[in-house]
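can u do me a favor
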């Protein structure tokens, strides 16, 4: 009897045990990586197991249909809770979005909402929106999180643009290069790697179930974590066109070593004649030899091959390079462009309200740079001015994007590096 034709027991999928070292919900391993990996592996594995029978072949066929879709709507929900050294943590993430590849020009739109409760360290929540139009991505914080380390409110409703064709690795390949369809030779090589060291150990078929208004076949896929590191190392080299160096190999193997569950993790997949309908995983987090929490992730696909409208954001509200934008201070008033935008001051006038005090000096003193006199900043603006005191001036880009910059900015004091800082304590 083909092992793939076995019917799984009725109980819940076997638990995945993950070391709990950081106290955060998902130590080292994101559930979406595992779910995405399953789809990719199923798509590639069909090139090897063309003679597969029973549930294995049926699931591979559904996987191929899903990968061939011109467009689809997706919903991702992750919810978890964990306990580490007596401290309890919990969180959840919901993502809804669409993918449209009609005309050979992939476009993706997504909205995300997340919350994490870090116990005594507070609760944080945020909403984000993202768009991908071919090789260019856009991201925006709709509701930024607030904390006492850095306040991201100045980034609210600002589209951050990233051209993937300009992002290069050490070998000179761009991120866009990695997104190109695999050649027949690459697929053949991946198939050989898969056949030699298959990371999927078993496919089982359960009872058909009703999902929404459709009936779906239920499969359970078990990933072999002992074979997964070598497969990923070899597969990454094939996709890139050059073998990974020792440091890159170590990064993959060490990360999976920390994430490896004590038992191979089953992932449940439901399919319909249109393709994969639902993917679901359940993990039990472990630490100090006992269960400390749980993590559940679900992905649902719908609206196959529909047309979705994903537009390019307005250039007036888009920034190509945040680091440069957060460092530019054309009027040398002590506020960079990002902060000028947030406090609504004029980036081309050092003294927006013409009261004799530079905008940066007024903000640092707690006053509104757009109104004459001693008009106070709002409570929200005062929080930003206080928490982001090292990010107000022209050194903000360095402080935001490098640990060394953060250290130097902290040592130099609020707003060091801006010409307007000298007036910080001289507001009349």
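np, heres the sequence
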């Amino acid at each position: 009897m083909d092992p793939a034709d076995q019917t799984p027991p009725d109980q819940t999928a076997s638990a995945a045990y993950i070391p709990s070292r950081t106290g955060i919900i998902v130590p080292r391993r994101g559930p979406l990586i595992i779910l995405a990996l399953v789809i990719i592996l199923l798509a590639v594995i069909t090139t090897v197991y063309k003679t597969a029978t029973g549930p294995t072949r049926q699931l591979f066929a559904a996987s191929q249909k899903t990968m061939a879709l011109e467009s689809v709507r997706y919903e991702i929900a992750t919810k978890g809770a964990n306990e580490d050294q007596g401290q309890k943590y919990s969180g959840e993430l919901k993502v809804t979005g669409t993918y449209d590849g009609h005309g050979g020009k992939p476009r993706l739109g997504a909205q995300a909402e997340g919350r994490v409760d870090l116990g005594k360290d507070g609760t944080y929540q945020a909403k984000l929106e993202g768009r991908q139009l071919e090789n260019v991505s856009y991201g925006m914080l709709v509701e930024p999180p607030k904390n006492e380390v850095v306040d991201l409110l100045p980034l609210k409703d600002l589209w951050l643009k990233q051209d993937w064709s300009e992002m290069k690795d050490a070998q000179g390949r761009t991120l866009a290069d990695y997104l190109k369809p695999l050649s027949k030779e690459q697929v053949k090589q991946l198939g050989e790697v898969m056949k030699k060291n298959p990371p999927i150990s078993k496919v089982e078929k359960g009872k058909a179930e009703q999902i929404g208004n459709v009936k779906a076949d239920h499969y359970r896929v078990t990933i072999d974590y002992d074979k997964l590191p070598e497969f990923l190392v070899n597969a990454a080299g094939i996709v890139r066109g050059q073998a990974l160096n020792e440091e890159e190999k170590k990064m993959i193997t060490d990360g999976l070593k920390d994430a490896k569950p004590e038992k191979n993790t089953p992932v449940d997949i439901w399919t319909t004649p249109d393709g994969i309908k639902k993917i679901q995983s359940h993990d039990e987090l472990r630490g100090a030899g006992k269960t400390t929490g749980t993590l559940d992730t679900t992905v649902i696909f719908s609206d196959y091959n529909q047309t979705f409208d994903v537009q390019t954001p307005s250039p007036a509200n888009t920034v190509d390079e945040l680091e440069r934008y957060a460092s530019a201070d054309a009027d040398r008033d002590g506020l960079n462009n990002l902060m000028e935008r947030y406090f609504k001051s004029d980036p081309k006038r050092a003294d927006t309200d013409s009261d004799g005090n530079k905008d940066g000096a007024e903000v640092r003193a707690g006053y509104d740079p757009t109104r004459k006199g001693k008009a106070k900043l709002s409570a929200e603006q005062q929080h930003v001015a206080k928490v982001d005191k090292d990010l107000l001036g022209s050194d903000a880009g360095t402080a935001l994007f490098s640990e060394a910059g953060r250290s130097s900015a902290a040592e130099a004091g609020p707003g060091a590096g801006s010409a307007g800082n000298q007036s910080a304590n001289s507001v009349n």
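Residues 202 and 222 are 5 Å apart (CA to CA). hope that helps!!
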